[in-house]
Every structure is written in C-alpha cells, then in structure tokens.
Amino acid sequence: MKDIFSDLYDKVLSFFTAQSSDDTKVVAKSRLKTVLMQDRVGFSERAMQMLKDDMIDSISKYLEIDVDSFDLSIDANENATILNLSIPVLRPKTDEEIDEALSIQEKAKIEKTEEIVGELKELVKEKAQELADQMSEADSNSDEVESEETQDEDSEDLKEDTQKNNEPKEKEVKKTNKKNKTN
Questions:
Q1: The dihedral sign for the CA sequence 97, 103, 106, 110
Q2: Pairing with 138, which of 10, 72, 121, 182 sits 20 to 30 Å away (CA)?
Q3: Which H or E element spans position 79?
Q4: What is residue 101's predicted lDDT score, i.e. its pLDDT?
Q5: Does 67 lie in the same domain as 146?
Q6: 55 plus 105 within the same structural domain
Q7: Residue 65, SS3 per DSSP
Q8: How many independent structural domains does the chain possess?
Q9: Higher per-residue confidence, 101 vs 113
Q10: Which of 19-28, 119-128, 154-163 tops mean pLDDT?
C-alpha cells in the first residue's frame, strides 16, 4: 500500500514538475522570439510597450477587453513587417459608456494642459525675475561706472583748479626767488 501512494505521489509530482518546466520553456521561447523580431525590425522594447499601452487605451474606449491576455507582436520577413494583435474582447461598450470614456479622456487632457500652462507661467515668472535682476545689476554697475567717471572728472577739475590757483603763486615765488638771487 505504501508503494502505491509513493508511486502516486511521484507521478503527481512529476506531472507538476514537467508542466512547470514546459511553461518556462514556452515563456522563454516567446521572449526570445520577441527579442529577435524587435532586433530584426528595429523596434525597441520600450517602443513596443508604449505602442501596446496606447492601443489598449484606444481600444478600451470602445470595447471591454481582457488586458492581461492582450498580445502584440511584430514579425518581419523579406518583404514586409507584420503587426500581429490578439485582443480578447469581453463585450462592446454602450454609447453612454463610450461618451463617458471620451469625456473622462477630454477632462484629463484639459487638466494636463492647465498643469503645463501653470508650469510655463511659473517658468516665465522666474526667467522674468532673473532678467530683471540682471538688468538692475547692470544698471547699478553702470551707475557705479558713471559715479567713478564723475568722481574722476571732479578730481581732474579740482586738480586743474588747484593748478590754476597755484600758478600765480608759483610765479610770485619765482619772482621772489629771482629778486633774492639778484640781491
């Protein structure tokens, strides 16, 4: 009796073990096919996923589909590239459901647009403030340069005035020195 249960146990275990390795083999083979096709066609994994997501979004507006079973693949032969889709449809949507889905999508677009506009307004404000700061800094630098130039001019004027005032005194000193020498 123990042998019967042992054999039964081994058979059941081998059944599940074999099935598991077969599933792994199928999954690995499918992945390899996908990679090879993408390589031949030049379509990246990211682009494939984005295409799949876009298709699911578009089709889901009009049909209720089994997203988990949705399959997208690209095959290539010498003459053409072929897009293969397997889309399990659960049921078509009613007109009301379609209108609601389109309305939700439109609201989402509007919200996204408003978000982008808000971000752009903030960016414009920041750039405008930076520009204003740069301009005021340039103006203050210009004022400093003008102030320095004005000070330089004032200093030169003062020197000229001092020299003019000192010229008669220098002439008197020279005359006095000449008189002293001659005496």
A1: negative
A2: 121
A3: none
A4: 87
A5: no
A6: no
A7: strand
A8: 2
A9: 113
A10: 119-128
